[in-house]
Amino acid sequence: MKNIVPEQDRVYLPIAESNQVYPVGRVYCVGRNYAEHSKEMGDDPERDPPFFFAKDSSCVVPACFSESTLITYPMATSQFEYEVELVIAIGKGGRNLTMQQSREAILGYAVGLDMTRRDLQSQAKKKGRPWEVGKSFDESAPISPILLKTDLLADNVSKAEIGLKVNGDLKQISNVTNLTWSIEEVICKLSEVFELRPGDLIMTGTPENVGAVVVGDEMQAWVEHLGEIRVSVTG
Predict the structure, then answer these.
(1) Which residues neighbour 218 within 8 Å (Cβ) at sequence distance 6 or greater?
(2) Domains, the chain, with CATH or none
(3) What are the φ/ψ torsions at residue 9 (nearest 5 degrees)?
(4) Alpha carbon separation from 220 to 163, 169, 170 (Å, rounded)
(5) What residues does the Fumarylacetoacetase-like C-terminal domain cover (predicted)?
(6) Where does residue 27 rank: exposed (0-12), middle (13-18), buried (19+ CB within 10 A)?
(7) pLDDT tens by residue, 197-208
(8) Quick one: three-class SS letters along 83-134?
(9) β 106-113/147-148 pair status
(10) 199 Cβ partners below 8 Å, 6+ apart?
(11) What is the rounded distance in angstroms from the CA atom of residue 62 to the CA atom of residue 10?
(12) Rounded to whole angstroms, what are the CA distances from 43 to 5, 33, 47, 83?
């Protein structure tokens, strides 16, 4: 059979210190998985079951460690906000995974930004509508190369500092230990509602103090032991 329209390009993330790449499938995001961010968004930070939303794989922008990555200020918004996140790359699929199976499902880790059109997201929330207009748009998920999991890295990441600066000024700072739902718990819960597949990415939530950026701003986002990415906003 012949395609009636050109096939869309697949998105790949490089594997750090390797010539291998990771073909991105689905991108799942966890809403409000740090208590202080839940509070600033007006929610109760208690351990209600985590909720999930998705970004299209085309939202992913591979961001390198060595130089700044450019993203374009998006259309239809005047409140373009950053959210630094620890990203999990899934290497083994499955449904209704146990905690042990969830650990084994992790291929590696990355640093990511869940860029958000906050004004559009807020309008959607007020009307009880889906969040895609505020979350799933072009270049809304810059993500670093993936560092493959080792036992030592897994232990270090579980208690790593996570943070973000804008133009050198510290905006977000926290620790992965402050996740309301741990990495493995998030994978377990997600696998109860979606059968996970190799190639899936999970953005695990952002700490407090999200905020807006404008054209010309540069963000520095990091997770301890995984490195730092720099992302600049262009017009």
Answers:
(1) 68, 166, 167, 230, 231, 232, 233
(2) 12-234 (3.90.850.10)
(3) -65, 140
(4) 8, 9, 9
(5) 27-233
(6) buried
(7) 999 999 999 999
(8) CEEEEEEECCCECCCCHHHHHHHEEEEEEEECCEEHHHHHHHHHCCCCCHHH
(9) antiparallel
(10) 22, 23, 24, 25, 26, 90
(11) 12
(12) 44, 11, 11, 17
How many whole angstroms separate alpha carbon 180 and alpha carbon 195? 22
Length of the chain: 235
Structure tokens at 84: 């630094």
Q: Which residues face 30 on adjacent strands?
A: 52
Mean pLDDT across 217-235: 98
Report yes or no: 173 and 2 within 8 Å, Cβ to Cβ: no
pLDDT of the residue at 42: 56
81 and 213 Cβ atoms separated by less than 8 Å:
yes
Residue 194 has pLDDT above 90, yes or no: yes
Q: Residue 184 carries which side chain, given as an amino acid letter?
A: E
Contact assessment for residue 211 and residue 219, using Cβ atoms and an 8 Å cutoff: no
Nearest-angstrom CA–CA distance, 11 and 176: 27
Task: Quickly state the pLDDT bin for 132 (edges 50, 70, 90).
Answer: very high
